[in-house]
Amino acid sequence: MDTLLQLMESYGYVAMFLAMVAENANIPIPSEVILGFAGFLISQHIFTFWTTFIVACLAGVVGSVISYWLGSYGGRPLLLKYGKYIFFNEKKFNMAESMFNKYGGAAVLICRCLPGVRTFISFPAGVARYSFGRFLIYTVIGTIPWTLLLVWAGSILGSHWRDLIQYNHIFLIVIAVICAIAAAIFLWRRRSKAHQS
């Protein structure tokens, strides 16, 4: 991780973008490390808040799309052959797949807000050949609150940004609850409009 942080210091947003793409494409790089350190760089006036937020969101969407297409074209055989190298095992896939099978496209939005499965939901969505347009919309909506909260927390903590790692279980629960509430409100309003029409 120290190498990644050095790369972010040296290459700025480009390094952060590539790291976030990798994380959302199921490479095990904790987003709280990437965005927590980015928040620290904001506090040092090296990064700016909104540029960091936008770049991180774009990277999250790009990484998710890569995972979606890998699922769409490679399917379960690809997972079984190469998943072990990135700690994406069949158990994690089955967990994400069961969520997707139960809730459909809404699972993409919900899971983007849940630690542990947020980066894995894109692959089963691709395997199921779920509508790419809807997948993209749900991914964007689910990526925004998670990214915003992590960047904000890192910028507030400043030099203490590593607290995000030490106390990440508490912080991630808070993020998950906030994001889940936001997702529930969005889905409820969407269904209400559908019933009215």
TrEMBL record:
<keyword id="KW-0472">Membrane</keyword>
<feature type="transmembrane region" description="Helical">
    <location>
        <begin position="12"/>
        <end position="35"/>
    </location>
</feature>
<feature type="transmembrane region" description="Helical">
    <location>
        <begin position="135"/>
        <end position="157"/>
    </location>
</feature>
<comment type="similarity">
    <text>Belongs to the DedA family.</text>
</comment>
<feature type="domain" description="VTT">
    <location>
        <begin position="29"/>
        <end position="155"/>
    </location>
</feature>
<keyword id="KW-0812">Transmembrane</keyword>
<keyword id="KW-1133">Transmembrane helix</keyword>
<dbReference type="GO" id="GO:0005886">
    <property type="term" value="C:plasma membrane"/>
</dbReference>
<feature type="transmembrane region" description="Helical">
    <location>
        <begin position="103"/>
        <end position="123"/>
    </location>
</feature>
<dbReference type="Pfam" id="PF09335">
    <property type="entry name" value="VTT_dom"/>
</dbReference>
<feature type="transmembrane region" description="Helical">
    <location>
        <begin position="47"/>
        <end position="70"/>
    </location>
</feature>
<keyword id="KW-1003">Cell membrane</keyword>
<dbReference type="InterPro" id="IPR032816">
    <property type="entry name" value="VTT_dom"/>
</dbReference>
<protein>
    <submittedName>
        <fullName>SNARE-like domain protein</fullName>
    </submittedName>
</protein>
<feature type="transmembrane region" description="Helical">
    <location>
        <begin position="169"/>
        <end position="188"/>
    </location>
</feature>
<dbReference type="InterPro" id="IPR051311">
    <property type="entry name" value="DedA_domain"/>
</dbReference>
